[in-house]
Every structure is written in structure tokens, then in C-alpha cells.
Amino acid sequence: MPRFALIVEYDGAPFAGWQRQKDQPSVQEALERALARLDPGRPAVTGAGRTDAGVHALAQVAHADLARDWDGFRLAGALNHHLRPQPVAVLRAGPVAADFHARFSATRRHYFYRLIRRRAPLTLEAGRAWQIRRPLDVAAMRAAAAALVGRHDFTTFRSAQCQADSPVRTLDRLEIEEIARPDGEELRFHLEARSFLHNQVRSIVGSLERVGSGAWPPERVGEALAARERAACGPVAPPQGLYLVEVSYPEPLFAGGPGASAA
Known about the structure:
Helices cover 20% and strands 31% of the residues. It has helices at 27-36, 72-83, 138-145, 200-212, 219-227; strands spanning 3-10, 46-47, 56-65, 88-96, 108-117, 130-132, 150-153, 168-181, 184-193, 242-249, 260-262. The mean pLDDT is 94. Strands 1, 2, 3, 4, 5, 6, 7, 8, 9, 10 and 11 form an eleven-stranded mixed beta sheet that branches. It folds into two domains: 3-105, Alpha-Beta Plaits (2-Layer Sandwich); 110-243, Pseudouridine synthase I, catalytic domain, C-terminal subdomain (Alpha-Beta Plaits, 2-Layer Sandwich), CATH 3.30.70. The chain contains five helices and eleven strands. It is α+β, with helices and mostly antiparallel strands.
């Protein structure tokens, strides 16, 4: 059975997350239902990142084993036809090696988190960013963030329901990008690692927001990390600001394709 990789974009708002769940809509189930219209074997879909309810993806990577060979362009088009009107789109599809695994073959994941500071309510971007009305000290947030880069025990910054065997992860990148807007400013928190713990990104962003608002001194983030205790974490940032941006593999999945690059 040929294995195919899919680059998938979705709005996470109407879903209970990526992972298939009983009696709740999921992105994985939406893709599997679409594939079942094309393949009588009802192929299972495996994703690179199990995003939570309300979390978006610009380029999630998934794989599935199909009963017959397909032209990648036609497969993507057929899936998009059957996915309508759900906010899920297959950007690209194509054959990959039989031993390719969307999750376990990945060497890097890039997320960003959008925080918009403005007084007026969000309308066009409602459900796609976290809105803050108060000023934020970005320099203090960057100073605090520096303590988190590298290999650490991130027990403080993972959910109590996290099922990972180890809380140790290497955070390769944590940068805060400032984007000027006529109505205020947007902050984008870029985080990259081989893998993340459950709620790790949102826990980090929520703690850094406490620093930016003046509720925490910058050094408290490093102290929270060293505490290795969930109670030391700040509030968890809401899901609507988080995006899975890119997943990297040892070799590009598609020459010139979006979202899945070589490490």
C-alpha cells in the first residue's frame, strides 16, 4: 500500500483538537472521513502534532496508507472537495517512503503564538489571536525568555495531563517578534524544538505575559523553571493564538512545497 504525506492547514476553532475523539469533532476525523470517500479501506491518518482544541495549523503534516497510487495534485483536490465546508484544507499531497512517519520522523517543530495588544475588540481576527489591552514590556519578556532556551526539565510548563515519559526537552528557539499595527501592536512568540510537551508553548507564553504586564519580575520565569512544579507556572495562554507553522524532516517531503522542510 503506497504511503502518502499531506500538508494540512486548518482553523482549530470548531474542533476539539487534532486527535480523534468520541462524540466530538476533530481534524483527524475530518480527514479520515474525506479519505474514506476515496478509499474503501478507510485509511487512518497520523499527524505530526496533536494540537489542542482551538489551536490552528498553517502546515500540519500527516500520513496515510492508501489502497492505490494517486497523483498528488488530484489527491489533494479530491480531499478538499470532500472536506468542504469544514475549515480544513490539504495544501499538498504526495507519495513518501514506506517507513516515513509524520510524527516520529520529524526533526523539528515550529509554532508561533499571536498576541495582539489593542483597545478595541478583535473582529476579523477574533478566535485567531489572544487580545491584551494593557501595555507590555517586551524587553522584560525577552530577558525572561532567555532562561528557557536550551535543554531543561520543563515540568513547570507542561500540563498535569501530559503523557510524555520525560519532562526534559530542548527548546532551540524562543524569540518575540514585534509587529507594528495602526491599532496597537502584535507580538509573535516563535518557538522551535524537536518536540514539545502538552501545553508547553501556551504555558510559556502565559508566564511571559505576566512578566510583560509587570505582575512578575523577569527572573521569576527562571525560578519557575527551576522549581519543576506545575504550581509555579503562570496562567496558560488561551488556545486561539497558537499555530503549528512548520514541521521539518531529514529530507524535504516535496521539492518547493510549503510547510515541510529539511532540518
